[in-house]
Amino acid sequence: MCGIVGYIGTQKAVDILVDGLERLEYRGYDSAGIATVLEGQIDCIRAKGKLFNLKEKLEREVNPSQIGIGHTRWATHGKPEERNAHPHRDQSGRIAVVQNGIIENYQELREELKEKGYTFLSETDTEVIPHLISDMLAHTEADDFFGAFLLAIKKAIARLEGAFAIAVICADYPDELIVARQQAPLILGFGQGEFFCASDVTALVNHTRTVLSLENGEIARLTPLGVEVYDFDLNRLRKLPRTLDWSHTTVEKQGFRHFMLKEIYEQPAVVRACLETYLTPNWHAAENPDTSPVQLGLAPEMVENLQYIQILACGTSWHAGLVGKYLLEQLAGIPTVVQYASEFRYAPTPLIPHTLTIGVTQSGETADTLAALEMEKQRRTGLDASFAPHILGITNRPESTLAQMVDQIINTHAGIEIGVAATKTFIAQLMGFYFLSLDLAYRRRSLSLEKLEEIINGLRQLPAQIEVILEKQEKAIEELAHEFADTQDFIFLGRGINFPIALEGALKLKEISYIHAEGYPAGEMKHGPIALLDSKVPVVAIAMPGEVYEKVLSNAQEAKARDARLIGVIPTDSPETRSIFDDLLMVPQVQELLSPIVAVIPLQLLSYHIASRRGLDVDQPRNLAKSVTVE
Ligand code: F6R
After folding, report:
1. For the residues 247-253, what does the mean pLDDT come to?
2. Cβ within 8 Å of residue 337, ≥6 positions away
């Protein structure tokens, strides 16, 4: 959460910083601010609320500065007020700092600095940093190798505890932008005579595709002449930037009203990209029995002798993990558990040998998921080889912290997702689990080659089937959504592989429409929640033909008998289904195993249109941030 950006070069810094903040606003939008070095002073402009408030203030400024830092905030310490907005300055107003993360020992540092006479103007944890740097700078001299500014920052960082990414400028060092990273993302961008930093590559792709992800414990000094990277002891590190393979990615709405709708519409292309990347071309069971139909490039030691899989994730990624569990158990026959990363950390499962741990996070930066994986790695290190940590990441961000910390990733190739509510990245995570389960099923011979081929043929049809839903259903769903603009509660029911889709449908609705919604396993309703039902509580039932189809229909009937308005996500429009459901959200008929992919699309559209009808900020719902980098 929170986005930071920095620039040093030959262009007007304010324009680059504001552009960067626009791309980072999904990380938090409680306030925004920028600081530049202008005529020997720090010029700092901040505004409460969304970025347009800051932009309004900046319109009144003429600022040709070519160095600066910016911040968009998701409040942790201190209310979303202007005085708590970043950048924060030291007492002399000559040092400015932006930070993403949490300084855990800020209370202690604050007291210490107060005793020394420093005055604090905000309630934030961040404000200790400029004061600390200022205090260090007062007692630091340049040596043969380093300037005093860098040395002072090094000393200040040594006092900080917690997770942070910072960018610092100083009016007395107008050619230096210094950044540091400890457990919070920070990417450097390299241009021609200009250099950038940002919490996320989205803020850089308009300017450069040559990037370097800083690792934990690293400081970088950016000047108009280049970038130097050091560890926290100022030992110089040799690091090579890499080129982002994102030439086709766009961060514009392209005519859609919201990013979320655009991203829902990108799903056929995302599924196609995944199929092209991971399926073995022209694979046929009869002709290629000795080749896996899926090419994930998994290291043999990661998947050999596998007895147990644990999936760690949060939110929508956790829902993808639940579908993954179903697939891994039913296709590959491997016992699998799915844990909330935030819970697992404090109550981990007793160690089981030959375990594969899978971290699922689209951003690759979710603090709880990263911390849980790190803990798992630590507690398995140094034990008998059968307990060795094998950690696989499923992520949309190959440049992320997750990608750096795990043994291998499955890159989900969904492109940048800007809408806070995850849509296309969820579908892509599901694809990741299909490929993994099929690869493991092939290796373990738990499915016949013919069955594998049948599933793969089904997967190949999904892009066109999603297109059909988008083309034929959106209008009807939009009209239906209008009827629920004032509804207060919703129930989503699913069973088997579609129970996680019921959870996901409910989460999408809650987070963007602020309507209370619950996802429930359809068969569990009668054990309590059915008491909630009456004519004011619509029920969405996912009824996809297969093992539990008849059961879901019966559960739907039970809801109908309590006067609930019943909406079916279903492929069959028959007199029978018409007699049960008040409204049908039609989807193509697919193998039950693949049904989550088609079932989730109408639910995404339903929540989108309900929220949009309620006039809400669909892409940036209140209190949320796209990348949850605090625990
Ligand atoms: C819901 C949503 C969140 C995220 C969760 C984990 O639409 O976006 O629930 O799924 O914060 O995020 P990642 O996948 O980045 O770890």
Report:
1. 62
2. 308, 309, 310, 311, 325, 349
Please report which helix (H) or strand (E) contains residue 508, including its range.
Answer: helix 499-513
Query: Measuring CA to CA, which residue among 161, 20, 21 is closest to residue 101?
Result: 161
Q: Answer whether 0.85 is exceeded by the pTM.
A: no
Coarse DSSP helix, strand, coil percentages of the chain, rounded to the nearest 5 percent: 40, 20, 40
Residue 170 gets which letter from DSSP? E
pLDDT at 247: 47
Tell which residue, 532, 526, 527, 559, has the closest CA to residue 543.
559
The finding on whether 604 has its CB within 6 A of some atom of ligand 1 is: no
With vertex at residue 344, the alpha carbon angle to CA 491 and CA 300, rounded to the nearest 5 degrees, is: 105
Residue 2 is a catalytic residue: yes
Q: What DSSP string runs through 433-463?
A: HHHHHHHHHHHHT-S-HHHHHHHHHHHHHHH
Residue 437 in contact with ligand 1 by CB distance below 6 A: no
pLDDT band for position 249 (50/70/90)? low
Q: What is the arithmetic mean of pLDDT over 262-285?
A: 96
The C-alpha atoms of residue 627 and residue 482 are separated, in whole angstroms, by 30
The single-letter DSSP state of residue 588 is -
Rg (alpha carbons) of the chain, rounded to whole number = 26
- Compute the distance between CA of residue 583 and CA of residue 493 in angstroms, rounded to an integer: 15
Longest dimension (CA), the chain: 86
The mean predicted confidence, pLDDT, of the chain is: 93
Whole-angstrom distance, CA of residue 195 vs CA of residue 6:
8
pLDDT score for 629: 67
452 neighbors 285 (Cβ within 8 angstroms): yes
Average pLDDT score over residue span 305-315: 96
Question: Is any ligand 1 atom within 6 A of the Cβ of residue 339?
Answer: no
- Close Cβ partners of 287 (under 8 Å, ≥ 6 residues apart): none
Residue reference for tokens 């080129």: 243
CA of 312 to the centre of ligand 1 (A): 12
Q: Indicate the burial class of 599 (C-beta count within 10 angstroms; 0-12, 13-18, 19 or more).
A: buried
DSSP-assigned letter for residue 280:
P
